[in-house]
Amino acid sequence: MFRVFSLRKNEKGQSAVEFALILPVLLILILGMIEFGWLLNGQITLNSAAREGARVGAVVTTNRQEKIDQAVEETADLSGLTIVSSPYTLENDPVINKYNVVVTVNGRMTPIIGIFVSGDVEMDSVARMRRE
Question: What is the DSSP-derived secondary structure letter of residue 132?
Answer without folding.
Answer: -
